[in-house]
Write a structure and sequence with these properties.
This protein is of the alpha/beta class. About 30% of the residues lie in helices and about 30% in strands. The strands form three sheets. The protein has a nine-stranded mixed sheet with strand order 5-4-1-8-9-10-11-12-13, sandwiched between helices. A five-stranded parallel sheet has the order 16-15-14-17-18.
């Protein structure tokens, strides 16, 4: 179960038209048409995680007020297990006045600093060494200077969305500031200083979100990568940071590397900001449309071409895995392959349906599939879903065999 602790809040949206200016001051007049409410802060992170993972538990605090009761009722309908203390002075509430075309006119906040430790006490009681904890800090008082330190005494799997001093999060597995937050800590970003900063705070990973510029991924060991995803049209960036952390946690839980999880998170966040309002990430937002197929592809024939064309039509990107020469010889016997690995790879890369070719040396592509995490696996009609390698990791689609075409038959005809 993923545990989330942090500042939970209620987001209220008042929407309408703003066609006039006030005679009392140089401000627009919003004529209200409707209102909606949604979970905010750590509560929004919990809703995002619950939408793509099973078993999410939220630890936070609300006041004994109408907004607090309303927030708890919202969360009860979102598949989130609640461990919420009702000892806050008031429930943190963000009220946004928004013109119907999406233009934000004003945000009105209601909050009082939370001073107790009820949430942390409940969380610590429930933790084991395998627990993953997401810390959603909005500097409203739930996360204090000792919070992460106390959690780390129970589990190393602590992922943080920060808002306070970097020292608060020393020792965390992953810390995810945005670029403005990072620069307030450590000045203008460059890779070398970011690595040293991660080392100084004993973070395994420092993940910096930078809006439309993408995500910078820095490890304590010195590695660096950058991912970026185009956005068709930005509708609303509210809650994008929660989407990123939710998907990173989801990816790590599935066994992805942190860079791979960040790549998926960047894609999901790009899809999310194309929607208006605070909208939880969906499994559809995680579907990059990556299709995998594999084989020897020794002598390309009509059956191969039809399979590859079909596979490409199942998604947005087709990755083809091919056995290296030694594994082909083990699988097919002496005299195979007819074409060496470089020739086979080059021929596949010339085809219009193939986006990437990966060579693997093992008898099966299990390890490669685990790394790539495709959305769909396509195999020919001599396979079933159950006999397809990687069937537990992705949807499997079987393409019917094109009768009369096979490499073995071509070789037999040539020899005869």
């Amino acid at each position: 179960m993923i545990k989330i602790i942090g500042d939970i809040m209620l987001d209220r949206w008042i929407m309408g038209t703003a066609n006039r200016m006030s005679p009392e001051a140089p401000i627009p007049i919003l004529l209200e048409q409707n209102q909606k409410v949604s979970p905010g802060g750590a509560a929004n992170l919990a809703v995002n995680v619950a939408a793509i993972c099973n078993d999410v538990q939220l630890y936070g605090a609300v006041g004994k007020d109408a907004d607090g009761y309303g927030l708890v009722n919202l969360l009860k309908n979102s598949n989130v297990f609640l461990s919420i203390a009702e000892d806050a002075v008031i429930t943190t509430t963000k009220i946004r006045l928004v013109e119907q075309r999406g233009q934000h006119i004003l945000r009105w906040d209601r909050e009082k600093q939370y001073t107790k430790d009820s949430c942390l006490s409940q969380l610590l009681f429930s933790l084991t060494e395998k627990s993953m904890v997401l810390v959603s800090d909005y500097a409203k008082g739930v996360i204090k200077s000792h919070t992460v330190k106390n959690i780390l005494e129970k589990t190393q799997w602590v992922l943080v969305d920060p808002k306070q001093s970097a020292d608060y999060y020393d020792g965390a597995f992953l810390v995810k500031p945005n670029m403005k937050e990072y620069e307030s800590w450590n000045g203008v970003f460059d890779v070398d200083s970011a690595v040293k900063f991660a080392q100084a705070h004993n973070w395994q990973w420092l993940v910096i979100t930078d809006g439309a510029k993408g995500i910078h991924i820095v490890s304590k060991q010195g590695s660096y990568s950058h991912v970026k995803e185009p956005v068709r049209e930005v509708a609303d960036v509210t809650g994008a940071g929660d989407t990123v952390l939710a998907v990173i946690a989801y990816g790590i839980k599935r066994g992805m590397t942190v860079p791979r999880a960040c790549e998926l998170a960047c894609y999901a966040a790009a899809r999310n900001v194309e929607k208006f309002g605070v909208v939880p990430v969906t499994k559809q937002d995680l579907n990059k449309g990556v299709v995998w197929t594999n084989g020897v592809f020794d002598i390309l024939h009509t059956g191969h071409l039809e399979l590859l064309k079909f596979a490409r039509n199942q998604g947005k990107k087709l990755i083809v895995g091919i056995n290296d020469d030694a594994s082909v010889c083990r699988l097919k016997g002496e005299g195979r392959p007819v074409n060496d690995i470089n020739t086979r790879k080059r021929q596949l890369e010339m085809l219009p349906w193939v986006d990437e070719v990966i060579i693997f040396a093992e008898d099966t592509p299990q390890k490669i599939i685990e790394q790539i995490k495709p959305d769909i696996i396509v195999k020919g009609g001599d396979y079933t879903v159950a006999t397809t390698v990687g069937n537990e990791l992705a949807q499997v689609i079987i393409f019917p065999t094109v009768e009369g075409f096979s490499t073995t038959k071509i070789i037999d005809r040539l020899q005869s």
